[in-house]
Amino acid sequence: MSQYITSDTPFEATPFTAALDWLEQSRILPSDVLWVMPRIETVSDFRRQWARHHQGQSTLGPWVQTADRLSQPNAMGPWLALQADLVGVLRELPRLAGGSSRAQLWALAQEYLELALRQVLVQKRNTSALAHYSENNAFAAEEAQVVATLAQTYATELTALLPARAVPEHREPKQVVWFDDGETIPGLWLELFYPDAPVQVFSLPAIEGPKPWHDLCTRRFAQQPSRVVLQVAPDETTQAQQAAHQILDWLRHEPGTEIAVAVLDRLAARRLVGLLAQFGVLVDDRTGWRLSTSSVAGWFDRLLQQYLEHGQITCIAQPFTGVLLEQLEPWAFGKEGNSHTLCQWASAFSDLFAKYKLDLDLQQDEAGRQLLTVLGLMRQVPAQTRFDAREFVAAWQSWAESQRFRPQDIESPVRMVPLLSTRMQQFKRVLVLGCAQSHFQESPPGLLPPAVAQELGFAGPRLARIQKVSALHELLLNSGQITLLHSAQVAGKPEVLLPELTWLDIVLRDTARHDMQQMDSHWSSRWHRQLPNHEVQVREQAEPPLELAALPAGSSKPESLRVTALDDWVACRLRFGLKHALPWPAQYDDSAMRYEQLRGIFVHKVLEKTAQHMANAGDATNQLEFWKQALLNQAQAVWGKLDLTDRATVYPFLKFFEQIVPRVAGKLMERKIQGWQFKGAEQTVEHPLMLQPSGAVVTLKGRVDRLDVRGQELGISDIKFTKPSVLKKRLQEPLSQPQLPAYQAMLNSPTAQLDFLGLHKDEVDWVTFPPLTDEWRQHGFNSWGEVLLGELAHELDRFFSGSAVWQANPGDACEWCAVRGVCRPESLPEFADETLGEEGDDE
């Protein structure tokens, strides 16, 4: 795909231009320079700029390396051998592999090896963060020890798997030129392989704050205006339709024009590909689909499942036509359940394909060639670890999930690329798909906390966001025609536009026409475009939403509220009012307890009994085996005291709990090592909440799951059967989880540490509330509990006094609330054209 320079005098000098000018002045021969660039896509663009700058009189030197390849293994055969060996070791370590499926075990081995590969790069640097993490996290230290041992044991093999030093014509580079995108890996790689070579660094712009966007407004929209369009779609489907409409319009006016689609929203991208296909427009997808999503991978999966279910393969369809092979003999590899090496498994399937000439068909397809490649690599694996049929399937699926492919037979003017791959390039026409704030957020990678991950060379959430924002800024500054597409909601949930684009829109607004703009749109007319809607929509007459008002004379006010009711208060005021703020008669439930209730009672009791037992265990509290055994003993004891009906109900969870005991034990031991001492569990607390300004009192009542002390510190904990990573996302808005802040205020302990203990099949961890923000402190609050009860006291008083009514809070609660059919939240503007349940919800 060609890139077009939009102007002979671009708005800013690019790092490429600065590097070429510096090279001319330095008088260094181009053939003596090693170039280090951010991503592979920038190399071809740099080659063209090099040729244009030198007018064909000089060729680019032989050394070019890209940062995105420097932490990846350069040879997959030896990498697969290490992974197979490691899986054989991990499956014998119940502390690390207990409860993991075969596929999860291969993924875990992959993650450990990737971390070890990075540790080889940082072995000469200070690793204080990793050491500190290991010392203060007894259970996770085992994982850290595995990584450290791998890095030490396989140092030679891992070093050989790093992208090797390039020495064309047996010469060392006399100069390194590094286009720095903020990644630390290139610097570590250069330290390892070229410690004596001088390095000239050209830093790519790191855009932060509103000022660059104010400057962009002046340069792009005032000094040299060119077409930039912002389109805000009401939902994801309309977003994909608008994207397809824009691409088709560009192609209609200039057939064959090359279009870059910078992708941030993968869901919208999949829909866009399907829409364009309906009009005969194919897409050259460079975003890197996983091999597991290809039709060839699905075909091979079906063959393997047939073998697993029947112990043999009796029918094989041609991978691309679906025609069944004739004269196929039933095929089996040994007896079902027998174990073989990866080499033996791969050889058997390779021979099967060759016998029926399926390998010739697979060679014609990019994904098919990758399947044959992985079987060829497995045949060369020297590891003698033996795997049964299901473990071989897990090995294949892990590989297919980790590898990416791009169909080579699609030639299209529409090229789809990740946003980061557009850096340092200039395009004639660009469509940016997805501009929500959530698209620019990143999570810390892997097993390790952010500080350790950053020390091992990962970008980190903040840097990753800066890189994406900077890439978007460069596109807006230097490209030709640009269309930005944003969906106002995803899966029925509001999506906030990237704040930097909001700043730009504010600067672009015409203050003289402010009042008129408010009538039409709150977006600036200088870049926002609303597509005409040619469809005639017929809607039913809207019914007004249900409103809840308090009864007169204060008769709605309850004497007490349970702390658990605050979850309803946060989720939806209407639901809270109907359930907790009206004088309903007392309700009695004589039915048997549900599984969820028994599960909670069981875990609370087991952890309480374990804490009491280990409080007097002396030195045993520093040994993981004692913690594990104590948990198992207490689980059996608690289960044995239940009646037969409750035992049968909670038995599935008992088996699940036994699987996660190693992880739970590690986290409890970690808490003990940090100095926390168990104080109590299931402690009943009450607190008179004085409503403001009336002075009326409502008593808050609750039961704290767990209390710990450390010197003068108090720790308040709540057990959640939720993945810790999900809890961390929820705590981005701490007041959305009101129970722990409420207990903090009720116990009059503003400095208390608030923690969730998340229990999930894939993850067990403590999740700590973030500290109170400076914004709240400036308003005189000292804790999240004070903020919560202050807001609660004021809003309850307004409702019970009759000065406020409650409606639905459109949002997540409406997906599961039984009142929705009565309150009709869809009649509210926020619920217009909602599509609850659409794909895209991560939880």
From TrEMBL:
It comes from the Bacteria. Residues 563-824 form the PD-(D/E)XK endonuclease-like domain. InterPro entries: P-loop_NTPase, PDDEXK-like_dom_sf, PDDEXK_AddAB-type. Pfam families: PDDEXK_1. This is PD-(D/E)XK endonuclease-like domain-containing protein. It comes from Limnobacter thiooxidans.
